[in-house]
Amino acid sequence: MAVRAVLWDIGNVIVRWDPRTLYAKFFKEPAAADRFLSHVCTMDWHAAHDRGVTFADNRAPLLKRFPDHAEAIHAWETRWWEMFSGPIAETEAAIEALHAAGVPQYGVTNMSHETFPGTIAMSPAFARLKDYVVSAHDGVMKPDPAFFALACERFGLEPGEVFFVDDSEKNIVAARTFGFDAHHFTDPAALRPALEARHLL
């Protein structure tokens, strides 16, 4: 079965996101920022937002445990957008080229329902994506096979028709096990050659 559609992850594939971009402004020493992100606002804690928990509900227990970090904890929401450093030009160009070639494109992301609208306003490339699966809206997260199954059902695709692009190795491994052709996005310059190799461009 030939690949005929592209599924795009969003964070660090279409737009760059890194909490350190924000917390470097809070902590003068990189080691202090690292301690905060590994012991207070951790990625495991943040995953609750992707499951649909609100920022307000998710930070409440942290504020009790770490009152000295109250300002930095609140900033995870109030200064959320400072974690972004803009769209990735190579991905934007690829999305536009695929659109011009008539290739169907979709977005699949673990993301909070509170931040999704603002995120897809960051680049005109998002307008080229026909539809989305968003974890907080849909109640399932990558790398759960049910997430990929939902994407196929919603977008009218068979696994063998999908080329999936994600920056997470565990998501790539799970997607390949599910039956997707998948590209681990680590170098923006490698993206177009990967699309050309599948005859999508």
Question: What does the secondary structure layout of this molecule look like, with pairings?
Answer:
Elements: E1 5-8, E2 15-17, H1 19-23, H2 30-39, H3 43-50, H4 55-65, H5 70-78, E3 84-87, H6 89-100, E4 105-109, H7 116-119, E5 132-134, H8 135-138, H9 145-155, E6 162-166, H10 169-178, E7 181-184, H11 191-197
Parallel strand pairs: 1-4, 1-6, 4-5, 6-7
Antiparallel strand pairs: 2-3
Helix pairs in contact: 4-5
Which features characterize this protein?
201 residues; alpha/beta; Rossmann fold; 2 domains; 5-stranded parallel sheet; 7 strands; 14% strand; globular
Describe the model.
This protein has 201 residues and is an alpha/beta fold. The chain has 2 domains: 5-16 and 86-197, Rossmann fold (3-Layer(aba) Sandwich); 18-83. 45% of the residues lie in helices and 14% in strands. The strands form 2 sheets. It has a 5-stranded parallel beta sheet, sandwiched between helices. Helix 7 links the parallel strand 4 (105-109) and strand 5 (132-134). Helix 4 runs antiparallel to helix 5 (70-78). The longest helix is centred in the middle third of the chain and has 12 residues, at 89-100. The protein is globular. The two termini are 17 Å apart.
Give the class-level CATH name of the largest domain. Alpha Beta
Q: Largest beta sheet: what is the strand line-up? A: 5-4-1-6-7
Number of H/I helices: 11
Number of domains: 2
SSE pattern = EEHHHHHEHEHEHHEHEH
* Helix/sheet category: alpha/beta
Shape: globular
**Low-confidence runs:** none
Biggest sheet details: 5 strands, parallel
CATH superfamily of the largest domain: HAD superfamily/HAD-like
The CATH topology of the largest domain:
Rossmann fold
Q: Could you report the average pLDDT, rounded to the nearest whole number?
A: 97
Counted beta strands:
7
Give the DSSP E fraction (strand runs of 2 or more residues). Answer: 5-15%
Distance between the termini: 17 Å
Radius of gyration: 18 Å
Approximately how much helix is present in the residues? Answer: 40-55%
Just name the CATH architecture of the largest domain.
Answer: 3-Layer(aba) Sandwich
